[in-house]
Design goal:
The protein is α+β, with helices and mostly antiparallel strands and about 400 residues long. It contains eleven helices and twelve strands. The strands form two sheets. Strands 1, 2, 3, 4, 5, 6, 7 and 12 form an eight-stranded mixed beta sheet that branches. Strands 9-10-8-11 form a four-stranded antiparallel beta sheet. The longest helix is centred in the last third of the chain and has 25 residues. It is globular and about 65 Å long. The chain starts with a helix and ends with a strand. The chain binds alpha-D-galactopyranose.
């Protein structure tokens, strides 16, 4: 659903629920990462794009003070958040993404206004497309509208990341919140996670398309595997005597191989290789060299599967099917995207063949797994916006 239509729908839902029209509407997109996986918390590079799937909030000032009410129009569930004191974790579980952002504003000395909010998200939940970052950045953007105070988008992304750390318990890097806050239509975002310097890489060649293939196997980053990978990377950096894996080369790693466990070695091999692949892929995209970008995507997937061990059977099945269709059938490359353990793949395909490719992947995937996937194409979307207010 286009953002304009989605915003109108959430506005109508707000009016139905609260009996008056909303005064502010804010939106923030989910993302797909083209390449640069598990590199952000290693000070490396990432290359995500915002997708045309959004978290949208409509709101108005509430008459009763000290409370923010949030109505989820899809699940028809409400949260009442006490803002008369420092905001804490609470129920329902999804409200913690919002609570975390509210707490971040309070910590920055902002007096929160009492609000009635209705929200809806078209970012699939648990699909590895950053539904949580979209919700966090959307909340922050809505608060900008409601308080009249704009925040630097980098500061906003960092506030949202802190919410994820403290209120959702996921020690994530900065990629998801950055792309949701800073994405630009028609562009990928090359983000240097050490310096936080960003470069917009145009992705407007009409002959190619990115397909997002949701395996419909839910991923759970809170389960501890993510934190474990982070710790293994830190261990590798320590053994190599560098601040982070960003500072290590493949040669250095080979030389130090005997000093670390096989697992730690392989984790580092993925990260060091992936940082290189990301820089090369950005160059390939600037030059519209799609076969090269595609090869880098496959290489990324293989490393995530074998060295980093964050893929799963269903993600591997999708990549296998895509590889079988191959360049002849219009597929340049394919890989799992996001944290892993389920969720989505991203495929770079010829636009003219995209529809047929999506159908073929869906049919073969269902045959092999008995699961119906969800497949959609997305152009690079804009980052968070105030739609009304
Ligand atoms: C999750 C995290 C990101 C990043 C990816 C893996 O999406 O939120 O910060 O680490 O996993 O690349």
């Amino acid at each position: 659903m286009p953002l304009k239509q989605l915003a109108a729908r959430v506005a109508a839902d707000f009016e139905k629920h609260y009996g008056r029209p909303p005064r502010w509407i804010a939106a923030a997109p989910g993302r797909v990462n083209v390449i640069g996986e598990h590199t952000d918390y290693n000070d490396g590079f990432v290359l995500p794009m915002a997708i045309e799937r959004y978290s949208v909030m409509a709101a108005d000032a509430a008459s009763a003070p000290g409370k923010i009410s949030v109505y989820d129009t899809h699940f028809k569930e409400s949260a009442a958040i006490d803002i008369s004191a420092p905001v804490t974790k609470g129920e329902p579980k999804w409200s913690n993404y919002i609570r975390g952002v509210l707490a971040g504003f309070q910590r920055r000395g902002v007096k929160l206004p009492a609000l009635d909010i209705a929200f809806m998200s078209t970012v699939p939940l648990g699909g590895g497309l950053s539904s949580s970052a979209a919700l966090e950045v959307c909340t922050a953007t809505l608060l900008e509208a409601a308080t009249g105070k704009t925040m630097d988008p980098v500061e906003k992304a960092l506030l949202a990341q802190q919410a994820e750390h403290e209120f959702a318990g996921v020690p994530c890097g900065i990629m998801d919140q950055f792309i949701s806050a800073l994405g630009r239509a028609g562009h990928l975002l090359l983000l240097d996670c050490r310096t936080r310097k960003t470069e917009l890489v145009p992705m407007s060649d009409p002959t190619v398309e990115l397909l997002v293939v949701n395996t419909n196997v839910k991923h759970e980053l809170g389960s501890g595997e993510y934190a474990k990978r982070r710790a293994e990377c830190e261990q590798a950096a320590k053994i190599l005597g560098v601040k982070s894996l960003r500072d290590a080369t493949a040669d250095q790693l080979e030389q130090a191989k005997g000093k670390m466990s096989d697992v730690v070695y392989r984790r580092a091999r993925h990260v060091i290789g992936e940082i290189e692949r990301t820089i090369h892929a950005a160059e390939g995209i600037r030059q519209s060299n799609w076969p090269t970008v595609g090869q880098l995507m496959y290489a990324s997937h293989n490393a995530l599967r074998d060295d980093y061990e964050v893929s799963c059977t269903e993600l591997d099945v999708v990549v296998d099917i895509a590889e079988n269709i191959g360049l002849k059938g219009g597929v340049y490359g394919c890989r799992m995207t996001g944290g892993g353990f389920g969720g989505c793949c991203v495929a770079l395909v010829k636009a003219s063949a995209a529809e047929g490719i999506a159908k073929k992947i869906a049919a073969d995937y269902q045959k092999k797994t008995n699961i119906e996937p969800a497949i959609f194409a997305s152009r690079p979307a804009a980052g968070a916006t105030i739609v009304k207010g």
